Fold each of these.
Amino acid sequence: MTNSITVKPIGVIHSSLKESQGAPIQPVFAKDSEGVIEIYEPYQEALKDLDGFERIWLIYWFHKVVEFRPLVKPYLDTVDRGLFATRAPCRPNPIGMSPVRLLKVEDGKIHIADVDILDGTPVIDIKPYFSKFDKFEVQKCGWYDNVSDQKGIADKRFQK
Amino acid sequence: MTNSITVKPIGVIHSSLKESQGAPIQPVFAKDSEGVIEIYEPYQEALKDLDGFERIWLIYWFHKVVEFRPLVKPYLDTVDRGLFATRAPCRPNPIGMSPVRLLKVEDGKIHIADVDILDGTPVIDIKPYFSKFDKFEVQKCGWYDNVSDQKGIADKRFQK
């Protein structure tokens, strides 16, 4: 088993979402939510050409989450599910991944919309969304195929 | 700036890809490539319900990559681009993200297809692919909109 790995924050997210209670659980449920990603100076040169993309993946660290739970009741279900079959934040490595909408890149800051991420969250990577690589037609989405709740709003169940 | 973060491998990928030279650069270019993810015991319970999904995101650590470069020539382009506008592996935190096809989950192992990941790569998270959350119609994909190369095969340019 490989030893532990060290990750450095490359920036921080500023958003209007101060706690999980009432926050959207995915960008698709966050249509009115905007935010700004502040990228730290050593990484700003790597932002070149990013503004040609419409959507970007933010990879970040859930900094306000309870410890790993192997089974969880997802926000959109009423039954305990295996953690890896959900997007719940209490993961062995609490890494989040959100495909947010890119508004503009300016002075080392990325302005974004469809934001489902809490204010102050450390960002660890940014990747462009490519239709060719990321957009798949799938027929089966497990337990989610029987879910009727389409609100997608969080509560405090996974909050530290 | 938040301090550094520690990540633990939750498993390891076994694949037929021994080096980057000749490997597919994304699952969409890896139609004939199969592999197995061995999940370490403390995390196996969290695999429950995963087999209902058709595709999963593997989040992993590029373990054979050169150091961070702010500007890179992507495999599919001939011009230097900002690293964050590419999926090149030499990132500040070399985290990879691949939407592979799920074949079956059995005895703590996940059998997968469309594998673009080198043998021995440490896995740090697994998330199900949800059409509702991950599939977006985007009109603009930056520099990639003018790319004609559709082979998607890697060479040694980012290999340590």
Amino acid sequence: MDSGTLFFLAPLGSITALIFAYIFHKRMVSQDEGDELMREIAKSVRTGAMAYLKEQYKAVLVFFIFAFIFIGFLSFVLKVQSYWTPFAFITGGFFSGLAGFIGMNTATKANSRTANAAKTSLDKALKVAFRSGAVMGLTVVGLGLLDISVWFMILRKFYGNNFHIITTTMLSFGMGASAQALFARVGGGIFTKAADVGADLVGKVESNIPEDDPRNPAVIADNVGDNVGDVAGMGADLYESYCGSILSAAALGAAASVSLSLSSGTSFNLIILPMIIAAIGIAASVVGIYLVKTREGADQMHLMESLNKGIDISSLIIAVLAFFVIKFLLHNTGINYINIWVSMIVGLFAGIMIGKVTEYYTSFAFKPTKFIAEQSKTGPATVILAGLGESMTSTGFVVLIVSAAIVLSYLFSSGFDIANISLGLYGIAISAVGMLSTLGITLATDAYGPIADNAGGNAQMSRQKEEVRERTDALDALGNTTAATGKGFAIGSAALTALALLASYIEEIRVALMRIADKTNGIITIEKETYRLTSQEIAKLDIVSLMNMYSIHLLNFRVLVGIFIGAMMPFLFSGLTIKAVGRAAGKMVEEVRRQFRDIKGIMEGTVKPDYAKCVSISAKAAEKEMILPAVLAVVTPIVAGLILGLSGVMGMLAGALGSGFVLAVMMANAGGAWDNAKKYVESGEHGGKNTPNHIAAVIGDTVGDPLKDTAGPSLNILIKLMSMVAIVTAGLIASFSLF
Amino acid sequence: MDSGTLFFLAPLGSITALIFAYIFHKRMVSQDEGDELMREIAKSVRTGAMAYLKEQYKAVLVFFIFAFIFIGFLSFVLKVQSYWTPFAFITGGFFSGLAGFIGMNTATKANSRTANAAKTSLDKALKVAFRSGAVMGLTVVGLGLLDISVWFMILRKFYGNNFHIITTTMLSFGMGASAQALFARVGGGIFTKAADVGADLVGKVESNIPEDDPRNPAVIADNVGDNVGDVAGMGADLYESYCGSILSAAALGAAASVSLSLSSGTSFNLIILPMIIAAIGIAASVVGIYLVKTREGADQMHLMESLNKGIDISSLIIAVLAFFVIKFLLHNTGINYINIWVSMIVGLFAGIMIGKVTEYYTSFAFKPTKFIAEQSKTGPATVILAGLGESMTSTGFVVLIVSAAIVLSYLFSSGFDIANISLGLYGIAISAVGMLSTLGITLATDAYGPIADNAGGNAQMSRQKEEVRERTDALDALGNTTAATGKGFAIGSAALTALALLASYIEEIRVALMRIADKTNGIITIEKETYRLTSQEIAKLDIVSLMNMYSIHLLNFRVLVGIFIGAMMPFLFSGLTIKAVGRAAGKMVEEVRRQFRDIKGIMEGTVKPDYAKCVSISAKAAEKEMILPAVLAVVTPIVAGLILGLSGVMGMLAGALGSGFVLAVMMANAGGAWDNAKKYVESGEHGGKNTPNHIAAVIGDTVGDPLKDTAGPSLNILIKLMSMVAIVTAGLIASFSLF
């Protein structure tokens, strides 16, 4: 077998993923949806979610049309980008949206079926919920790898072995995926948290009715929000990380091939390597998904073990198979295949470690969350301070893990020759691919969370027996932990992917420069220096020389200003989204209060509240408020680039990566810990429910909600989207910047 | 007159400052200290403050002894640093401590005298408070400039015109000042906020007694805290920024001289230029201080105008005089003196602009703080979210102002030749000097705040007439605004200074390399490359070549990991200090509750609470909790350097600067806005005092307290201390790092 044949594992893997997603979906749909009331509730949630998603996609479509015209202008009028770019951009956005849609469609169908299965047994409920989550996981990896393999095959027809052009062109489809993901995350995040905060503030705090109580007018909006935010948003987010890591690894593989003067066969192998690892990951994920099961009366620990078993075995399969694949692709090429394999393992392992740290900082089995819960004794202020303090401290370990992963994957893949920069950077990208290789199953555990949460809501609202609700509660509690570890994983992979994108950026600069050289017959002026370089010579320039030409060093004032602006962006972006949630939640609070006041009989349960009104408030707020942050994320790299030039853009990307990564970890852990501290108090500690301590803990949770579900997860996308915009506009900036 | 004579303006200016500080202090002391009760309260506060400061200095002394031994080991055993370094380090720490001590000593004497003066008139009270603040302002600039001029004179005797060695050696005394400042800020910040939060939570929220009520056992501790945190801490902080900006400008001036092959006369002029600007600033500040006065019944706006008039006129005087001085020093040298002057003006102006933005985001005259106050209608959670949202958004403008200052000062001073990097960096440092040139008066307005605050406390506790308390309240309210703008100013100047220190770091690397070359007869190995370079040749290497030798570019994996770790440090550090405050405040809450419970008659006002116990809780907590964050700040750059090398350290400094600057702005503005939102509610808006809305606003203020007074301001020092540690250990890392 030759590696050209092996490549077909990638499309094959992607189709396998989609087939299994279809199977899981079909089986789930064949389950009983429960009684009349359960169906009705599920239908309200589904209708609300689909109506919102439709509106969101309309707004996104407008953005995509403008962006398509802009990128088309760059490609066809200014001729500073490849002709393929606008089309690649569109497919990325389309598939990302499709993955989100399929995942959410599945989730909204699975809610009542999970609740109904909980009537039978815990295991059955777990399987329905988890395998529905798996539909999402497998759809994301399936569509991602499909898009990548198809583009790779198309572009090979046109460019043959000119891998450098092929891979840098493909990178641009990441911008489409990132842009769509940002809208999904920000819009979905605002939707869900406006509803959640509004429902909690009036329902739990003011009127003292329990969570998911059907008397609360915002309860359907809250459930809709779980689907549009946590399912569709998360799916689009990881779709984009997944593609970004594979694409940047491919681009860096192509770059390494040129700088090490490798044969075109070896280049091909380096480029398809991340795609094959992804394909293996899909197979391993399917196996892992089948391993997740439980028995009746299982406790939290056992349920978690069951999920972990699935993930661990998948990881093990990937680790073993990847060894043989990498050996097959790289032996006798002069590249030490064991070292590349170790880089991949480093990423895989770092992902698991980040999950553990996140669990430590957010689960009430451990000291930090216990401390936060204890601080409820002195009121909400100390709960907030404890949460801020613990979550800020937690960034230390996560950063150390990612730092260690970067250092180790670089050192191994470069063969411990730190000057071998192109292979070292390739190794960092491969470690990101390794971390994300288990995405099929890890995303399943993640998407499972909101399904279980909604199933609980369904059971509560349809007034199921105590025993049913106990089962859905058990699944939901587990979902909180997987959501927190899933977030840690999303952040860690985003950091590594963004780093790989930063490294790929220099390759886009190279291609832009080659294009300029072709136009000017090899006479190019950079930073007031004039060079005589043909595009062939530029293609062979080593990375460091290229960076020196553009003064991309740490005392270039444009790099420094870029770092400042980049470091500020995640804060500004978070500030805008948090304020948006605050405004929308304020409206929701007023509406819920109004309904309690004006609609007689709600509190007695004799009259149904106007759920649709609350859904529409969330939807309108989300659509309106997602525009400014998203536009800012797209426009800033372009404006900064036009003023500060390529070196300023690189500084900006590095600054945004540094502060965005840390801020995202902090927000995710703060929100998770406050949520679980509240649950800990509700479990009877520190006075239990309906005490001032409980109210203090609920306030903490409410503050954490937009941090962990709106601003925080959007930051992962922000740093990648900014990189992607920079990549797509590299040609523009190279030709037209002020400095 | 030659420039050698002109230099004596620097020591002259410093002595002038100290003389005026002495005069103001003497006049203040001659004022009547008020009645028996006022004296007694003032004495309690003074005794508590002095006792704590003594303990703090003891702890700091232990640290300094260890650090002195370590630096001595570097200098005399490993011989990787100048022999002068340990001694310069010590004097920096000593003078910083002395400035804090004098400022605090003055403040504690001024409290009751201000309260007593308020019996006569508002103007008299303002003058006593403000001129006592001026003692601090003038002491800081006086001692700072004195230390610098004396060291400059001493080192010139030994090294003559070898300015490069002189200035890089002098930089190391900044490490002493930074280390002492960090202890003062962190210790003082923990002390004051433990007391403040504890007093507020039990007093205001639980027991419903007003602020500064003598029945509150923590009230004296709270007043002591204002002095040790806001006065001594702030003084040490700005002492260190002030010296850092002058020293780094001098070092970059020396570097520019070498790289532009300037005559030794011109070099001398470039080096003394920042010192002379500082001397002019002192004279202008004294004039400005005399202009601050008010009339009876003046409103907030008028009081603010009066302070602003003082600052504006000082700024104007500096701007005009600096033009002539810079012209005198630089005409006929080939350097465009107008451009350098513009760089200075840019800094001066940026400082004023940052103050305006801070005012906008923290004063309740404007939309953001009004919005936060309005959110109190939906409870504490929405108050917190609004504060986080607004303060995160506020970072945008501040970063843009500082970015514009960097770009403009670089462009002008480099004569719009972006390749003229050494002169451009000198310009950035000069803009920092420009921003801090008004420190004599701006620090006076800052130190005035806690004095007015304490005077109000004194008046309240000694049960003065309504009219006296109205006057002290007016002064206190103004103090809140000046404290917020002062913080913005401290952060902005810290960012510019840290940037200048980052640029100076490369000069320390150069000197370290020269030392190595001298030992190895010019054969040096860096990044596995071997060079043949004599120390004379290294001295003349341009900055970019030097950075290329060490691969200090943005795709070096050590730089990237450095950026991650650097970006994380401010978060970790803030997390530790916030948790420390939380723990200490928890103890304070328990103690206050215990006293209310156990000591009969406190609430009736018949029995005095045990104030000393609360003071001692704050003091012990501060002493214990300041160790870990401070040690972390010192150790991290050394450990990171030993593992990642010089390029990693530079990445770390850039990362810490980026995220630390933005986080500090956010924390300061969040805290200031919450504080004023509470005051806005207390003024009668949204229901006024003793409503649920008021409690929500108080909770916001309580959360903001440690952000704005402990963690936030410490970050300014953190980023500079990390730079200073890196500078002092550059020789160690250059010789002994792993990579």
Amino acid sequence: MSSAAVWGPSAAPYHREGQHLSITVVGSIAFDAVKTPFGERERMLGGAAVHFALAASFFERVRVVGPVGDDFAEPELAVLEEHAIDTDDIERVPGGKTFFWRGEYGWDLNTRETLDTQLNVFEHFEPKLSPESRASEVLFLANIQPDLQRRVREQCPQARFVAMDSMNLWIETARDSLLQTIAGVDCLILNDAELRELTAKPNLVQAAREIFSWGPPGPAAIAAKQGEYGAALLTPDGFFGLPAFPLEAVVDPTGAGDSFAGGFVGYLAARREELDAAGGELPGDLLRRAMAYGTALASFNVEEFGTERVARLTAEEIFARVGELSEMTRFSDVRVPLRR
Amino acid sequence: MSSAAVWGPSAAPYHREGQHLSITVVGSIAFDAVKTPFGERERMLGGAAVHFALAASFFERVRVVGPVGDDFAEPELAVLEEHAIDTDDIERVPGGKTFFWRGEYGWDLNTRETLDTQLNVFEHFEPKLSPESRASEVLFLANIQPDLQRRVREQCPQARFVAMDSMNLWIETARDSLLQTIAGVDCLILNDAELRELTAKPNLVQAAREIFSWGPPGPAAIAAKQGEYGAALLTPDGFFGLPAFPLEAVVDPTGAGDSFAGGFVGYLAARREELDAAGGELPGDLLRRAMAYGTALASFNVEEFGTERVARLTAEEIFARVGELSEMTRFSDVRVPLRR
């Protein structure tokens, strides 16, 4: 897998906090009510930006942009701040209620039904980034309405690496806007079914080729999330596939995709020296390692409800799991004499 | 991944044909009518035993056991014999008609509908193996009624490695018999959905643990076929995951699972010296390489209709694809300093 041209020139000096480059994420901050075959929770901290931020916070300082209501209080803030996540750009809407999602998963956790979605403070959300968040060199646009994603993107002219997620709702109801947003990012992170729906192509290879044909500008790398099967990375001339980490018990898949994105983007940001050395390219080997870290973070996410597992995760656990993933995917290529 | 105890003692001397150990396969020999988004065929050579035999024939001599009708004639036989497949145990049923299957695939080829199944000569099939087929040390029980699978197994007391496939029909209608058959094999090769259905467990890790708990005797390795996502190998203490080879165009998935089994079992049989050296164990590294060869053969199978692609495949193409698979799954594990 060769490199993909992405990592733009630095608008130097880096905006760093201490030793760390900051990552800005915009997306939902939510209360989730979730029922799975293994139990249920009536109200837990959730939302794409939260799951992303917790996962990415192991690698770099993360700034969360998004609205919350009066019901978002100290205990929720504490989870983020304990992980040194910057909450200055979390907008408190007086009299508002935090975004709420209720869902239920089927027995093998491969299907889920949304029982209730209350946009609440998201209905009139207009992202306003602080100078610090605008100065981030790495940006993740979690799954929100694509106009909003673009307005955040435009506020971050210094961003050198921008990744995004989306969902079937926007593919179906805001396709033109979504395509504009996609044209402004370096990496698209979507479920494989969404990639097929977005492109009307029956398989990943064709779907990725279609998306690359829309540019430039546009993504130079596509990460296809495949749920329990793992994830694949497609670049204009390369493919990398990685199975999900095998777990005896998947308790709650909510947020797995955002934790994947957090590990993936976080790892890339943490290897900025490698990005700089590659001179405007995204090295294929770096992307693969980022996939492994994303996969590891996603696997921890699903081991318990909501943010519970990732919130108490340690560096050693992450390293150990990436090491296991590496072991579980390795094979030697010993030929045998074939008969013809 | 450590070894799994499977490869039994040799009933020496090996039954070899020339330089090659023979593999016996029992299963359907069929005419298939298939419609996919890329075209259709009204009548083509198919059946699990045929797809398996063509794939495995690159590695060892294969003996096919199964019934055909008067309509199975020289052109069909020729495809097998050109690949040095032994057809002596193909039973011609006078006045009978060959097994027939008609199916249609959905746009992304992940769903298929069976439109017609005519058992024909299979309805009263009673496998009778020749002394040569009985003497095979490697046996594959393709997807047929589990009583029949067992009757073949019992005729091959010298078999040192036995693998099997099955399907949802037998899980639902002949479960007790199927469990008895499973207890007599070394390796179970099933779709992941079938593994879940068989065990009523929601994920692969739990499903495999359940199956291992039924033994001994029973399988020491389980290959879970995951369609477009690839395949996973589970042993009592190990896991290996391999993505499918990414293809721009999947034309016809029919027989992919049997081609996978043919590459997998064929590679193992061809490495009999390695099996012997392991002293009654199935080395994990050997199983992984077998998975890669199975994955490569399956990927060729789906590139064209029926047996068309595998029938003209070359050793160099197989080696090249396994090499590409190895490249597409490799990643280095470079750590970054984490923040906590």
